[in-house]
Amino acid sequence: MLASVLLAALPAATASQLQLPPLLGRHPVGTISLEFTDHSRTAPSTASNVTANSTEPRRLMVSVFYPTTNISIHSGNHSRAPYFSTATSAAAFDTYIGNATGLLTNLLTWAYEGTPIVPSNTSVLLFSHGLGSSRLLHTAFLEDLASRGWVVVAPDHPYDALYTEYPDGSFARMPNSALDDFPNELPGLVDIRVKDVQFIANLLKNGTLLPRLSSPPTIGILGHSLGGNTAAQAVANNTSTFPCGANFDGGIFGPVATTGLDQPFLQIGAANHNQTTDATFSNFWDVLKGFRREFTVNGTVHQSFMDLPVLRDTLGDDYPAELHNQSGTEPGSRLLEIETSLIDAFFRFCLTKTKPSDNLDQVAKNLSPDISAREMW
């Protein structure tokens, strides 16, 4: 869960030599970062300080990745967005991940900043990051989903995100005390996160967040680690807003672990995380009453579902050998293909309803032997 173990001591490589894997979808991608303030809630956001006397409203930073066109990119003279939004942001992550400030500041994504959105449908995928992580550490995955035609919205959950920087230069950092009472802190954190994603969903539906969408979107929700638990609980709390969801390798606890779901839900686990090794996976499977699938991705560990394998392969021999066990053995580009193929097929079945469930099963079969499935083949 904690990102402090992710990328320590990245070396000083030449940024111009680095390149993320090419996008797998047919759409060029645009991106914007936006700030929204929920004035109905205050800033404290861990269970230990949620009752603190704070008058600061809760401020959320949101990254949006979306399909665009080459004409829009070139006519507006748009530039590719950096992997980290500012030098300050990269430097802040550097305090946790080693001496990589210059490298990470200059690493470019494939998404073009500020180019007009040209959605291929009126559906949106909302992504929730893991505890101690950041929306930024999923950039390669999110922009690849957008290249497949999805509008993808990813908020930071401030104060349980590793670091969140705002346009005015202020920032929110995960406090050292956030996990003093782990795991008893987690239900309170999930409750706050669910309120975050519901707030973002409301902005999408009333046209505040993406006014260029032609109609209020249908919204699918997915997440990694604690974000996957957030997705499950969000679907349980408001099925009309979130008709289906997906979880990357997060343990399932809280009310949804008992009540289960009638809605479609997708579980994707690391190689060492399944119903045999995690009772929450097994128990949750039993209370999933609607469409359900569970896939295990070989050669992965928990942090593999962040951008860590992509960054490892981008750096090549310069990647610290001592960190290889934090990223698994699956090549980063192949893992992106697995992740985005499964998510794309699942939400085209349960959200846009443009593909049957058999399509997801066939996509999964085509990805074997790199993945295995429960109760399918």
UniProtKB/TrEMBL annotation:
Source species of the chain: Sporothrix stenoceras
EC number(s) given by UniProt: 3.1.1.47
Top-level taxonomic group: Eukaryota
Name listed for the protein in its UniProt record: 1-alkyl-2-acetylglycerophosphocholine esterase
Keyword terms: Hydrolase, Lipid degradation, Lipid metabolism, Signal
PANTHER family: PAF ACETYLHYDROLASE FAMILY PROTEIN (PTHR10272:SF14), PLATELET-ACTIVATING FACTOR ACETYLHYDROLASE (PTHR10272)
Coiled-coil portions: none
This protein's record includes keyword Lipid biosynthesis: no
Keyword check for Transferase: no
